[in-house]
Design goal:
Layout: E1 4-5, H1 19-28, E2 33-39, H2 43-46, H3 59-72, E3 78-86, H4 97-100, E4 106-110, E5 113-115, E6 122-124, H5 129-139, H6 143-161, E7 166-167, H7 188-203, E8 212-216, H8 218-221, H9 232-240, E9 245-248, H10 261-270, E10 275-283, E11 286-293
Helix pairs in contact: 6-7
Length: 294
Amino acid sequence: MTYSCLHTHTTFCDGEADVHTMCAAAFAKGFESIGFSSHGPVTKKTGLKTGWHLPDHRLDEYIDTIRREQKLWEGKLTVYLGLEVDFIQGLCGPADADIQALPLDYIIGAVHYVLSPRNGEPFAVDSPPEEFKKGLADLFDAGGTALYNRYYDAYGQMIRAGGCDILAHLDLVKKNNRQFQFFSPAEGEYLRRVEETADLAAAAQGGSRSPVVEVNTGGIIRGRTADTYPSLEIQRLLKKRHVPLTINADAHGPDHLGGAYETARETMINAGYTSMWIFHGRKDQRALWQEEAL
């Protein structure tokens, strides 16, 4: 199994280590490649001020830093430059012209925020548990059902808009739903929404970007979920639709690299997959992926 991680955060956003330290850890673990995907800037476009996004004024510094590391590790470790770009309805997304104009090797599309039906303000579905619980009660009249419907509405709009090479943590909305206290993933409405999302991911194949869905082990690594993003059940839906998968750790520190990869591999096999996809850069504006047996 080739080890790589394209979903990696550093101290440029909410990570625990700098770029060089993460590269050194990946090299020590025998990784073929590492890709950096800082949470893209949002403040200038949305007015949101967070402690976990790359500040707008540091974007050029971030790009220059990754490019220096690419040269430093040449011949030993392949280093890729990416961004994890938030899709927030009506405000920003991976397909935005300014994002597309950046000299990136790849773009990860993600939904962390949904708009509250009560006040229209962005609400982070993966906020800390107590903050999440209060926000859900204050901002969502129909509770968990309204939340996941808003989430999959946004995710579907992001896929339709395009502009990304990887679709991140497809069912992130479950992160704060331990013991199914807010909604059941077995309920008919939820299943209908994830099937719609799987259909959209399948329909995007063969297009200008043909995004690969990541099997993200970050929730397991940090003890927030018992399974991968997306779940085994959703992976089965994706398999039926021939949607390609890749494995990422959503690493926020050196110890996260490669974390729970064997669990991800076993889940993919149980879903019916026999191969995964490994990123090999860009050529003529297209992402290059190579299929590898699990």
